Amino acid sequence: MTAEQLRSLIAAGLPCEHLDVSGDGRHWYATVVSPAFEGKRPVQRHQMVYATLGQRLHTDEVHALSMKTLTPAEWRAQAESARG
């Protein structure tokens, strides 16, 4: 699995305003910004991302995925606080 393939799977299953995926082929990190996360707890957001990957997590095609899941408003607030 490549970063672009993983990115495409997530984007196909969730409307994303921002999506960044990096990793080494087995261990991945994703930042996912989606309006679909509004009103959802972090665990629910992660479950939504995992659902886009289907069986790939169970077959070890994606061994590990760490993620930051944000709503568009949270993303903007984070960017503003980083600017300072």
By DSSP, the count of extended strands is 3
Q: Tell me about the largest β-sheet.
A: 3 strands, mixed
Head-to-tail CA distance between termini:
37 Å
Question: What is the beta-strand fraction?
Answer: 15-25%
Mass-distribution shape: globular
Radius of gyration: 13 Å
* Tally of DSSP helical segments: 3
Q: Which percent bin holds the helix content?
A: 40-55%
Q: Stretches where pLDDT falls below 50 for ≥5 residues?
A: none
Which class do the helix and strand fractions yield? alpha+beta
The CATH superfamily appears as BolA-like
Strand order of the largest sheet: 1-2-3
At CATH's second level, what is the architecture?
2-Layer Sandwich
Elements, N to C (H/E): HEEHEH
| Overall number of domains | 1
- CATH fold assignment: GMP Synthetase, Chain A, domain 3
CATH C-level label: Alpha Beta
Write a structural description.
The protein is of the alpha+beta class and 84 residues long. It has a single domain, classed as BolA-like (GMP Synthetase, Chain A, domain 3, 2-Layer Sandwich). It has three helices and three strands. The chain has a three-stranded mixed sheet. Strand 2, helix 2 and strand 3 form a beta-alpha-beta unit. The relative contact order is 0.20. The mean pLDDT is 92.
Features:
three-stranded mixed beta sheet; BolA/IbaG_stress_morph_reg; Acid stress protein IbaG; single chain; BolA; alpha+beta; BolA-like_sf
